[in-house]
Amino acid sequence: MPAPLARLSLILLLGLSGCATPPAYDNNYDSVVLKPGDSRICLGNPCEVHFLTPPGKKHWVISGQNVYPGSYPPGKSVYLGRFVSGSYSFQLEGHQGPVSHLHVAGRDDG
Question: Cβ distance 17 to 79 under 8 Å?
Fold first, then answer.
């Protein structure tokens, strides 16, 4: 195989391998991982949501639009639950960073 064609094949193979990467969490639902200031779209319904809390010494309270508030440890990936179709915002109380947003676009075929 000529060198340019081999190089192109390798680039295409590496590019497509990202499509075959397993999800962040092994389950039957789509999932997203948010951190302060992130905006994400989840195509599955329901969508499992995890949030990376900033490091520090205090627990963080995460609240927001259409979100039940809860207290979570610093510097961890925390599970916020399964969210159905709709738009959500997540704010760390007492944190100066921007709000995180999630839109669950999937529909329930069940």
Answer: no
Domain 24-104 part of CATH 2.60.40.420: yes
Pull the structure tokens for residue 37. 């200031």
How is the chain split into domains, by residue range? Answer: 24-104
| DSSP 3-state of 11 | helix
pLDDT band at 97 (very low <50, low <70, confident <90, very high): confident
Amino acid at 105: A
Q: Which pLDDT score, from 0 to 100, does residue 6 have?
A: 59
Stretch 13-28: mean pLDDT: 44
92, 36 contact by CB (below 8 A): yes
Tokens (6 digits) for 65? 């639009």
CA-wise closest residue to 51 among 35, 73, 40? 35
pLDDT of 70 over the 60 cut: yes
